[in-house]
Amino acid sequence: MSKTFPDGFLWGGALAANQVEGAWLEGGKGISTSDMQPNGIFGGVVERTPGDRSIKDVAIDFYHRYPEDIALFSEMGFTCLRVSIAWTRIFPQGDELEPNEAGLAWYDALFDELARHNIQPMVTLSHYEMPWGLVENYGGWGNRKLITFFERYARTVFTRYRDKVKLWLTFNEINMSLHAPLTGVGLQEDCTTEDIYQAIHHQLVASGMAVKACHEIIPDAKIGNMLLGGLMYPLSCKPADVFATLQENRTWLFFGDVQCRGEYPGYMRRYFRDNGIVLQTEPADDEALSHTVDFISFSYYMTGCVTADPELVEKLRGNILDMVPNPHLESSEWGWQIDPLGLRTLLNVLWDRYQKPLFIVENGLGAQDKPDADGHIHDDYRISYINDHLVQAREAIDDGVELMGYTAWGPIDLISASKAEVNKRYGFIYVDLQQDGSGTLERRRKESFYWYQGVIASHGASL
Ligand code: BGP
Prior knowledge:
- With about 475 residues, this protein is α/β, with parallel strands linked by helices.
- It has a single domain, classed as Glycosidases (TIM Barrel, Alpha-Beta Barrel), CATH 3.20.20.
- The chain has helices spanning about 15-20, 55-60, 60-75, 85-90, 100-115, 130-140, 145-160, 180-185, 195-215, 240-260, 265-275, 285-290, 310-315, 340-355, 380-400, 445-455; strands at about 10-15, 80-85, 120-125, 165-170, 220-230, 230-235, 295-300, 305, 360, 405-410, 430, 445.
- Helix 14 (about 340-355) runs parallel beside helix 15 (about 380-400).
- The chain starts with 9 loop residues before the first strand and ends in a 6-residue tail after the last helix.
- Bound molecules: 6-O-phosphono-beta-D-galactopyranose.
- 6-O-phosphono-beta-D-galactopyranose binds next to loops.
- Keywords: Glycosidase, Hydrolase.
- It comes from Enterobacillus tribolii.
- InterPro entries: GH (IPR017853), GH_1_N_CS (IPR033132), Glyco_hydro_1 (IPR001360), Glyco_hydro_1_AS (IPR018120).
């Protein structure tokens, strides 16, 4: 009999509002940064004119079909579903004083439906989107006023859902702002590094204020941060490569350091000094940052390598985010390098560094699924990917890591974040939708659906 996961371990899947809900103008919703990026976070801003369409406008129509989808999640045995609230459903422009009741009511209905199936919601306050009004009228997170708007939004939803939601996350992949400033902090792509760090500072302060507000309003809730789990390896054992790797890992771990330890680390202060970056701060910021998260959540898809040799970087880079590929690993169809053991390493690194509970809130394989003649999808590649990662998660628990749960990314096919692709499917559930918007949106169980159901039912013993 193989080892099982601990009692109380949460099993489920993770979604983001802008990748599933659709209904982009229903229920009083305002326009978000995601609506202005119809080709994904790496596709730039496109002016929306009346009549033009984006695949995200309807997406998989979760806004209207959530009862059917939640029933399917329940059939798989989910005990947790990670969703995000679209800020624009609650504050359409972002700066209103009063929230939009229709938006609040829709999430009430969603959480009630989850409760009926004994599925615990985990809610991200901002998953790769914010009101476009805050970008146009205030310049995004570069403006300190955003802290107040975000705090108002966070307090509104904490108060409204205090009896329904006990697990919260602040900003999705907060460390991605360096690579996708519009998506992360609402800044234009040509902004300076100093602009980005100033905006990130405001976001970190807002994150601390949200932690404080959550603890005040829902004392029995837990609130975590959310990091892109981008573990990097040295390309060689040359000391210069090893040191460059330490520094590279710090560019994303810095966010976790602030959110878990409550202050800027020394290496970051030095980076700012060395690069002439001067942040505008206020005395109260330190107090806000001191409100540290209860747990750390992260996404994990791949690892990459680092070399100190700029010529080699130029020659080898090619993976997403220009990472140097690892010659010892296979890649997905999208060039993301598959590294299950890296997940065990990362879990141990984060546990050793912070000694706070961890939660894997995204992991999965984006692939082109081809239904056979009978319409069945035999996604053995997805089964093997998730199986191998879960085996390593279980090993990490045995290493002593405190792991709260696992929510697979995109348990139902959805619109991909990077380029708004439909054919990059992650789901255990197939959705009949093509890139041109055609398809019936019918849901169909894939082979992985039954496999994941078995994993959950056996508490991981079937891995
Ligand atoms: C993470 C995002 C998700 C999700 C995932 C997969 O970075 O938090 O929103 O989409 O990556 O990426 P993609 O959809 O581009 O395949």
